[in-house]
Amino acid sequence: MRVPTKLDEWFDGWPELVCLDLDGTLIDSVPDLAQAVDYALMQAGANPAGEDRVRTWVGFGAAKLIEQAMQWADLPKALAENCYRDFLLYYRDHLTEKTTLYPNVVQLLKTFKRAGVPMALVTNKPSVFVQPILEHFEMSSYFSWQLGGDTLEEKKPSPMPLLHCCETVEAEPKNCLMIGDSITDHRAATAAGFRSMLLTYGYHQGVDLLSLGADMVADDLTELFI
């Protein structure tokens, strides 16, 4: 199987490991996340934030998402536990109602699988939600590891989740790739010594991806295989 030019330049062959983010990289989960955030806000007596606003908050994990929503709504910190609980319960029951796969995700996963490249799903989403989402989109079988934001002691931008997977397959960090959509993914990759690819269609929190110095910034996953 021919090694794509970009990967051959980086790794002199296929990477020894590929770690992929979930939200904003493989799936657009904001429509369902926004509904859960708005439900939690309204339960606390606040106005809904709306999907467009919630989209700018996603990327740092569920707890941070609710913290940002509460700050926007000027809710007292005393309501944090209730808001977070309401968010989690609502989101659990509406995980994939409006969530969609981004283009060419399955093609990317199939290509790496055919090449025998180990893949890990590394997300800051609570781990209880990860498997149901992957099963819904029939992606579970592609990943040797599924790490949520609470799986290890640290989450992205810490390099710990990436290095955990890297050490498991006895790979060299310089021969591994992180694919994500945000500064959080890029910082984790840089700290771990991984190459990084960032997608422009994801959740950037207002950061100019081109300013980060990633190895590749792309509009589509398939650009990796040109």
Automatic annotation (TrEMBL):
Which InterPro entries does this UniProt record tie to the protein?
Answer: HAD-like_hydrolase_sf, HAD-like_sf, HAD-SF_hydro_IA, HAD_2, HAD_sf, PGP-like_dom2, PGPase_prok
Keyword list (alphabetical) reads: Carbohydrate metabolism, Hydrolase, Magnesium, Metal-binding
Coiled-coil ranges from the UniProt annotation: none
The molecular function GO annotations come to: phosphoglycolate phosphatase activity
Keyword field contains Metal-binding: yes
Q: In what pathway does it function?
A: Organic acid metabolism; glycolate biosynthesis; glycolate from 2-phosphoglycolate: step 1/1
Q: Which domain of life is it from?
A: Bacteria
The family annotation for this protein states:
Belongs to the HAD-like hydrolase superfamily. CbbY/CbbZ/Gph/YieH family.
Protein's recorded name: phosphoglycolate phosphatase
